[in-house]
Amino acid sequence: MNEKKDGATGGDEHRNYFRIDDVIPLVAIPVHVDGIDNDEALTKIMSSKAISMGNISGAPATDADETAITTRYDKTGSDKVQDELADIKAKLDYIINHFILEKEGLANPEKRYVNISASGIRFVVNHRAKVNDIMEVKLLLPTYPPVAVFAYGEVKRVEELGDDKYEVAIEYVNMSDSVRNEIIQYTLEHQRETIRRHRETGSR
Hints:
alpha+beta, Thrombin, subunit H
């Protein structure tokens, strides 16, 4: 685990964020801004967003469990209606979440090694990249429930690795506090889990 702190720029320049290493689903798309100044392009970039995916790892809720069915029909009419509505909502959420993932290319994305914090992210791309390029970054944080993050960033550093592979360090732009907080919670939980595993291993 990499526990190095890094300073964010702009309005967050006085805050520090932990960086962690992980392997997560990620899609990176270059944003073409030919013909306009890079600073102007950054002002036109849409804000980030985060969407909780709820139950996307398993099948939608069903009434197949016999115990659940028996319990349900022991309830009053009002309670049964509430249960039915909850099931409908769960099934709709499942369908909508999968539709979002399919649309955004996150249904079966390539999992990539990343070094991530609430101020930026570093990963390898399979296309030429250069400093000041702008990228749209879509990633699925492996939290519970998973959270899909859609953000934009400016390439601050590039290392050519050969075979048309480039490691890029990206700083987020126009990231909302709510999305940044999702990443902060993810990195903190990742750290806690890593520390817990290390302690369990050391105690054996």
